[in-house]
């Protein structure tokens, strides 16, 4: 269970117990002593549901069901990248995790504006983003255990190399998605140059 989910349950329990104590204090009838705390628990639990948001995009604003499903999965991986990344002491790995997080948000925001390109990014979301989150999470847990030794040093080198490869993969994915815009810029510049030459 995630930390946010545990906090949500704790808040709901406290609210339910407070309602139970008030019902007992005011000597309410038995059905109310049972039902009101349950209703309070459920109410607090539902109200405190965290809002799923990637960058500036909220889940409710995502275009279409496919985008919403993609966002749900991507949210967990991006949250793992940023939260686990912040706990890592190794500067280089922490920076790589942060860079991957920022790139992931840029890719997602671009897809939100261009949902017709989702198919181009399936491999990115299903493999690369998931792998990045997994590597960062495993390394963070390993480094938090304070275990030392050659195998841990090798794991650190492997994680650094893996995240470096993933950074290139994220950049290539973004470039592939932006290909249309890049071609538009190139075309605009060529037309501008031709227009300028004709005007001389």
Notes on the protein architecture:
There is one protein chain. By secondary structure, the chain is mostly helical. The chain folds into two domains: 3-47; 53-188, Single alpha-helices involved in coiled-coils or other helix-helix interfaces (Up-down Bundle). It contains seven helices and two strands, in the order H-H-E-E-H-H-H-H-H. Strands 1-2 form a two-stranded antiparallel sheet. A hairpin with a 2-residue loop joins strand 1 (53-54) and strand 2 (57-58). Helix 4 runs parallel beside helix 6. The chain is flat, with a radius of gyration of 24 Å. The termini are far apart.
Furnish the topology, listing elements before pairings.
Layout lengths: L2 H23 L4 H18 L5 E2 L2 E2 L5 H24 L3 H23 L8 H23 L5 H28 L1 H21 L1
Antiparallel strand pairs: 1-2
Helix pairs in contact: 1-2, 3-4, 3-5, 4-5, 4-6, 5-6
Outline of this structure?
This protein is 80% helix and 2% strand. The protein has helices spanning 3-25, 30-47, 64-87, 91-113, 122-144, 150-177, 179-199; strands at 53-54, 57-58. The chain has a two-stranded antiparallel ribbon.
The quaternary organization reads as single chain
How does the overall form come out from the CA principal axes? flat
At the first level of CATH, the class of the largest domain is Mainly Alpha
Which spans have pLDDT < 50 for at least 5 consecutive residues? Answer: none
As a percent range, the share of helical residues equals: over 70%
Supply the helix-strand structural class. Answer: mainly alpha
Let me know the largest β-sheet: 2 strands, antiparallel
* CATH A-level architecture of the largest domain: Up-down Bundle
H/E element order: HHEEHHHHH
Strand order, sheet with most strands: 1-2
Q: Total domains, how many?
A: 2
Query: Into which percentage range does the β-strand content fall?
Result: under 5%
Mean pLDDT: 84
Total beta strands: 2
Determine the N-to-C terminus distance. Answer: 69 Å
Looking at the structure, the CATH topology of the largest domain is Single alpha-helices involved in coiled-coils or other helix-helix interfaces
């Amino acid at each position: 269970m995630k930390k946010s989910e545990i906090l949500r349950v704790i808040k709901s329990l406290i609210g339910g117990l407070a309602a139970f104590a008030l019902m007992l204090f005011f000597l309410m009838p038995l059905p109310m002593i049972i039902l009101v705390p349950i209703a309070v628990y459920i109410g607090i639990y539902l109200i405190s549901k965290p809002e799923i948001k990637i960058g500036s995009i909220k889940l409710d604003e995502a275009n279409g069901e496919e985008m919403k499903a993609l966002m749900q999965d991507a949210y967990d991986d991006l949250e793992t990248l940023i939260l686990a990344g912040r706990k890592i002491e190794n500067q280089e790995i922490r920076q790589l995790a942060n860079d991957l997080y920022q790139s992931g948000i840029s890719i997602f925001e671009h897809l939100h504006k261009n949902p017709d390109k989702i198919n181009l990014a399936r491999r990115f979301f299903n493999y690369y983003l998931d792998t990045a989150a997994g590597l960062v999470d495993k390394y963070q847990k390993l480094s938090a255990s304070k275990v030392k030794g050659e195998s841990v040093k090798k794991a650190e080198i492997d994680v650094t190399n893996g995240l470096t490869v993933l950074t290139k993969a994220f950049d290539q994915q973004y470039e592939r998605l932006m290909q249309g815009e890049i071609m538009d810029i190139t075309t605009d510049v060529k037309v501008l140059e031709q227009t300028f030459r004709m005007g001389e």
